[in-house]
Amino acid sequence: MIKTVEWTSEGVRMLDQRLLPTEEKYLMLRSYEEVADAIKKMVVRGAPAIGVSAAMGLALGASQSVGTSVADLEFDFRYMCKVMEATRPTAVNLFWAIERMRQALARAKAETKDVEEIKKRLTEEALLIYNEDIEANRAIGLFGGELIPDGATVLTHCNAGALATAGDYGTALGVIRGAIDAGKRVAVIADETRPYLQGSRLTAWELAKDNIPVTVITDNMAGHVMKQGKIDCVVVGADRIAANGDAANKIGTYMVAVLAKQHNIPFYVAAPISTVDLSTATGDDIPIEERDAKEVTHVRDHQLTPEGVEVHNFAFDVTPHELIEAIITDRGVARAPYSESLRNLVTTRLAHAS
Ligand code: MRU
After folding, report:
1. Using a 6 Å CB cutoff, which residues line ligand 1?
2. Which of 73, 75, 72 is nearest to 62 (CA)?
3. pLDDT tens-digit readout, 58-94
4. Which of 239, 277, 317, 330 is catalytic?
5. What is the DSSP letter of 183?
6. What is d(CA 245, CA 299) in angstroms, rounded to the nearest whole number?
7. What is the per-residue burial (b if ≥16 Cβ within 10 Å, else e) of 121-132?
8. pLDDT (tens digit, 9 = 90+) per residue, 180-200?
9. Rounded Cα distance, 71 and 173, in Å
10. CB–CB of 268/328 below 8 Å?
11. pTM to 2 decimals?
12. How far away, in angstroms, is 13 Cα from ligand 1 center?
């Protein structure tokens, strides 16, 4: 199993995804600040993985708090949450995980005044979030695998695999692994996903490791391979799904959705329920991160663009719900009208496929 992020007695152990696919290096992060920095610099990335890492960072920070009273610990904890919240704006899993940790502190505080006990419960909550993510992606694989025809070629954009989650299956790649584990033959076409190249570096790496057939294309080839009839369906992840079903994901996903519509190719979004944000009404309300221009103007230290030229680096875009065939979650598959089906899934107790 790919170990994207792990809780250890020394700190949070994290695979440095900036170095993949050529180097598989693990960092030991020994403070919540180091974890926050790793999220900002995309040592770890992918909405669920960001959430799990933030929870572990907060548990680590709490365990190192020198506060002797509950009030001291709470003071430190509130500050740590602010630091974590300021790392990246789009992936709602970050804020979902921080809120889970806040609630865990509040529950523990109501039951005990023992600071060490409260710290222990925060660690337990972070590990619960980790284990729930692994389980959720297996459920997504089961529900989603049923939608993939035997012999299908699936196009995916960015990396929504083990590397984008707590590890193991992933979301969109979980659907592909679920289909294969159900005995189906599936091949993958992965968009390279400029500028950070999550497709060519990360998706290709983890699928090759699992001997799942994968072909990398540049993002601007997606239309051509669809027109050639090479694509049976598209499966992507999501960073935030609004109440009406609009889904934010890696920049370029909207483009792929429009092309899929043009070629009558089903376009699926796979994400855990923790990525559904009912407090955000539509995609227009989702904050879109803009990152450093250098990610566009350079590949590592190689300069691609002349000095001084204006550059945009939008990290995400929004696919309107009208272009989405179905949203595959760990509680089942949602279909239009999403304002109803998503609300039902969010409020329904776990309906894990056993
Ligand atoms: O900028 P990134 O690499 O964090 O963007 C990641 C994505 O857009 C993923 O597709 C999304 O987070 C889903 S991950 C299961």
Report:
1. 45-48, 91, 158, 160, 164-165, 171, 198, 237-239, 249-250, 315
2. 73
3. 999 999 999 899 999 999 999 999 999 999 999 999 9
4. 239
5. T
6. 34
7. bbbebbeebbeb
8. 999 999 999 999 999 999 999
9. 43
10. yes
11. 0.97
12. 20
